[in-house]
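INTERNAL AUDIT FORM
Audit reference: QA-55
Scope: verify that the stored structure record matches its stored sequence.
Auditor: D.O.
Record contents follow.
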Amino acid sequence: MLSTTAAALGVTVALASPASANAPSEYVPWLQSAAAQCSGISASLLAAQIQAESDFRTNVVSSAGAVGPAQFMPGTWATWGVDADGDGRADPRSIPDSVTAQGRFMCHLYSQTSAGVRNGTLRGDPLDLALAAYNAGLGAVQRAGGMPSGGEYTTQTQPYVAKIKAFEPRYRSLNGPTTTLPQVNAGLDFGSLEGLFF
């Protein structure tokens, strides 16, 4: 019906599809590798998160002191930072290091929020809550029993989650076959860090 009406009016109708975007090529293998660290976290989600955090810029420093593409605060970097490219230092401005650490941290947050939803201490979508925890801290999510609200949680954290969810479909092509990378210096043990972020 719509196409017949459009043809009669001489109008071309384009089917709506999500806008596509490409992450900068130097990010792609690291996004895919970082997402492979756990189930539930995708390369497209990590790319959307970096777009929201820094628009893929490496030398960004926020007014609060967050550094690099994934915008790590120094204290958080001290726990989650990793020398993923093996150059001898963990650098939050380095694409390999920052993206790998972002994946590690998001895997931890997602495991915590998933467990909270399963045991009834948290309400909401575990992935949304993990994104909120990346922005506001896991303690804020736990104290709220779900998505934090009020004050900066309403004006910053909730829009942050919504923005990443809106960006994510643009990067879904990243969720295909992964690119082989050099061995990542991971040594990941999310269980041993469970009590650090309450």
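Auditor finding: record pair retrieved intact. Confidence is low (pLDDT under 50) at residues 1-19, 182-198.
Action required: none
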